[in-house]
Specification:
The complex is a heterodimer. Chain A is α+β, with helices and mostly antiparallel strands. Chain A is about 55% helix and about 10% strand. Chain A folds into three domains: about 55 residues, no CATH class; about 240 residues, Cytochrome Bc1 Complex, Chain C; about 170 residues, no CATH class. In chain A, helix 5 packs antiparallel against helix 11. In chain B, the strands form three sheets. Chain B has a four-stranded antiparallel beta sheet with strand order 1-12-9-10, with no helix packed on it. The chains are: A alpha+beta, B alpha+beta.
């Protein structure tokens, strides 16, 4: 006999035999863990049979268990297909968890200090097993989350699901959108690269423009933690990114989803009469039970979405990392992330307080209060002409403003800087200099010139030889060499140009692009020659100097001067030289995004 | 499928409004009133706590964190009037020899959103939102609200005279410049603690 006040497992074995006792033990544990379903119930559900006992054991996990207490026990068949939800709300939730998990793993190797943050990034990228992969997943997930949440809002707008009684659900959704945007943006600062520093400098300066002045100044100080973004600013953005905003996001996700369930998933507009809301009354023949149908479908979707992200991050996407943050140089072509391009475009229109603070503020205030402004009962497209028109106008305005946010719009850059920037820029927003993705073995040491491209494949060798002679004859070769040696500290003894070897087609393509760019800027860069000088800097490290040599011409009078020069035949003005260089390591492993 | 028009919903809404108008508001009882007072004091406490937390989170500065005096010899002054400015990255400013032969120091941070405009041949151009400024920091184009800010500059000349930038309250950078008038510069001091903002261009 046992000393316990209740029969022990051993007693069970003595009484029923080992096999039976183990089965009953497992069965009981299963029923407790699932809060109501024993092994028989689970097998019935998986076989697609009706439950054999009452009360329905497939409903008890919802009623008695914690994990499913907020999930409805059945859905309306009308909302389980791709339309009308496109799974966008579900996907948004998926990304909340996906970003939390990948983010927690990245935190293992990250310290929020300007001294080591960038070093941490390099360590994650090059040393930590799967480090780059996890960072890619986190970054791609962030971009995808912004996209999905925005599309979710768009869908809700189009099917008019924000109308009574779901106004409050919509308002909390806008808060979630704002939290998503801020999370994505605050993550920018953490790598402490050039993109990080300047994107956040602009962001914090916008906060400074919040009226009245005393509020703006102090909000700016609170965010930056000092007059400039430094150690304090990084720490503050880190805390917002990993603690404060996620906490807000989780709370509002709970509120939002609770409201979704309270009112039921809104049905497609045409499934109901105008003014009716029947989402909560699901007819028996339209019920799709959570267990097992929705549950297995969601697990499948988790698998599929994660698989897509893994494939993208393995073959098609790498999170960019620019050079180390430098508070003394603003890089050329500094842009906001794509989802803030519309604000950057608006900022170019004028006053930063209006276009940077009041305008976006009005847009988001309008969005929050949309359900209380548009109180029409009908959800049919035909009855919502005004709101749909307004919606599409807003979307078009966003596209136009986003275009205006691009660096091409309204930001003047000297032509020679613009051309070399296109060749040598470090990766930002999946855009990088054309030289970077050239494979290491296709960068043969030597000097190459766009004259080769100009002359065409047959005349290439002759054109390059002629160029060498020209340099020698005019003494320009010596000037170039001196410029490279002294200004750019390039360790070479002589400069002699050759044609690109046949086994370096990628380098040839870059040279073609170089020539094309020079052609496009012919008005500013008169008689321009592009040159690429490749040297072996260290074992496994090559240095590439890109040079442009041209006749300076006043921009305003370029055409006139060119014509005059052609008439009088005196093209020989003093040459100007502009050069920039980058280093490519044998393991640099840049690769261009598809289509970039 | 029967179609309910919006018009049929109207009487109900009207009935609701009518009901609301008839609601009688009684004066608060002592208990109710005390609850309001208690609630207000809790709100006040919350407000104080918030103010305290903001005060806590506001960064503190030591004396002199904002800047100091940078001293330069005449070699770091551009040789000819109107030539390219000499940049001092550590102090984030440019020393300018104005076209009418004067000394000026421009704060290198764009008055728009804090990027650093680069000197490009004949103007400062900002890579972020495209604002442009002349050599004297005067506004040319773009979203910036005013020309580049200036730092108080103290110039010592070879004849022993010392002149410093006066706040001219003018949009034109030239008005802030210290004229050479044929004298040689012995020393230039730039006080980055004293920033001069010129009026907006509008």
């Amino acid at each position: 006999m046992t000393v316990l006040p209740f029969p022990s497992f051993l007693d069970d074995v003595k009484e029923k035999g080992l096999k039976r006792a183990v089965f009953e033990g497992v069965n009981e544990v299963t029923e407790r863990v699932t809060a109501g379903m024993n092994l028989q119930d689970i097998r019935e559900a998986l076989r697609g049979e009706a439950p054999s006992r009452k009360p329905n054991p497939r409903l008890t996990p919802h009623a008695d268990g914690f994990w499913l207490h907020m999930r409805p026990s059945y859905f309306n068949r009308e909302v389980t297909g791709l339309y009308p939800t496109f799974r966008l709300g579900w996907l948004s939730t998926y990304f909340v968890f996906f970003e939390t998990i990948t983010g927690m793993f990245l935190m293992i190797y990250y310290t929020p200090s300007p001294e080591v943050a960038y070093e941490n990034m390099l360590n994650i990228l090059s040393n930590v097993p799967l480090g780059q992969f996890v960072r890619d997943l986190h970054r791609l997930g962030a971009e995808a989350m912004v996209l999905i949440v925005t599309l979710h809002m768009l869908r809700t707008f189009l099917t008019a699901s924000y109308k009574r009684p779901r106004g409050f659900t919509w308002a909390t959704g806008v808060v979630l959108l704002l939290a998503t945007l801020f999370l994505s943006f605050s993550g920018y600062l953490l790598p402490w690269d050039q993109l990080a520093l300047w994107a956040v400098t602009i962001g914090a300066s916008m906060a400074e423009a919040v009226p009245p002045e005393i509020v703006g100044t102090n909000v700016n100080l609170l965010l930056r933690g000092g007059p400039e973004i430094g150690a304090n600013g990084l720490l503050r953005f880190y805390l917002l990114h990993v603690l404060a905003v996620p906490a807000l996001l989780f709370v509002f996700t709970g509120v939002h989803y609770y409201k979704v369930i309270i009112h039921g998933h809104s049905l497609p507009p045409k499934a109901e009469n105008i003014g009716e809301d029947t989402a909560k009354r699901v007819p028996l023949d339209k019920r799709v039970y959570f267990i097992p149908d929705i549950l297995t479908s969601e697990i499948m979707w988790i698998g599929v979405t994660t698989f897509i992200l893994v494939v993208l991050c393995t073959w098609f996407y790498h999170a960019p990392l620019e050079a180390h943050a430098d508070p003394q140089v603003t890089p050329l072509g500094t842009t906001a992330p794509w989802y803030f391009l519309w604000i950057q475009g608006a900022l170019k229109l004028g006053d930063k307080t209006f276009w940077g603070v009041i305008f976006p503020g009005l847009v988001f205030t309008f969005l929050i209060f949309l359900p209380y402004i548009d109180t029409g009962v009908s959800r049919r497209f035909a009855h919502r002409r005004f709101m749909l028109t307004l919606g599409f106008l807003l979307m078009s305005a966003t596209v136009v403003l986003s275009y205006m946010g691009l660096p091409e719009f309204g930001v003047a850059t000297a032509a020679e800087q613009a051309v070399l920037h296109e060749l040598t820029m470090s990766p930002a927003h999946n855009h990088m200099g054309k030289l970077l993705p050239v494979p290491y073995e296709q960068l043969p040491v030597g000097a190459y010139t766009t004259r080769q491209i100009e002359a065409g494949p047959e005349e290439a060798a002759a054109a390059v030889a002629a160029f060498n002679e020209e340099l020698e004859a005019t003494g320009l070769g010596a000037t170039l060499l001196q410029e490279l040696q002294q200004t750019h500290k390039l360790d070479i003894a002589s400069l002699r140009f050759s044609t690109v070897p046949a086994d370096a087609p990628e380098l040839y393509k870059v040279l073609e692009f170089f020539e094309h760019e020079l052609d496009a800027h012919e008005a500013e860069l008169r008689n321009a020659v592009g040159m690429l000088v490749i040297t072996q800097n260290q074992p496994n490290l090559k240095r590439i100097d890109a040079l442009i040599m041209w006749n300076p011409v006043e921009e305003e009078t370029a055409d006139e001067t060119l014509q005059n020069a052609a008439q009088t035949g005196e093209a020989e003005q003093p040459f100007r030289i502009f050069a920039q260089h980058i280093f490519i390591h044998a393991d640099s492993n840049y690769f261009a995004a598809p289509g970039a | 499928m029967s179609t309910v028009t919006a018009a049929e919903g109207q009487p109900r809404a009207a009935a609701r409004r009518g009901a609301a108008a008839e609601v009688q508001v009684s004066t608060p009882s002592r208990r109710e009133f005390l609850y309001y007072i208690w609630g207000a004091s809790m709100a006040l406490l919350l407000g104080q706590a918030t103010a305290g937390l903001i005060w806590f989170a506001l960064p503190r500065f030591k004396e002199g964190t904002f800047g100091g005096i940078f001293t330069f010899s005449p070699e770091s002054f551009p040789a000819t009037p109107g030539s390219a400015p000499v940049s001092q990255p550590e102090g984030r400013f440019h020393i300018v020899h104005t076209e009418d032969d004067g000394v000026l120091t421009l704060y290198g941070v764009c008055t728009h959103l804090g990027c650093l405009p680069k000197w490009e041949n004949d103007r400062f151009a900002c890579p972020c939102h495209g604002s442009q400024f002349t050599l004297e920091g005067n506004y040319i184009t773009g979203p910036a609200p005013r020309g580049l800010d200036l730092f108080r500059t103290i110039v010592t000349f070879d004849d022993g005279t010392v002149e410093e930038t006066v706040a001219a309250d003018s949009r034109d950078g030239k008005d802030y410049a210290i004229k050479l008038n044929g004298r040689q510069i012995v020393k230039i001091e730039v006080d980055t603690g004293a920033r001069i903002r010129r009026p907006g261009h509008a």
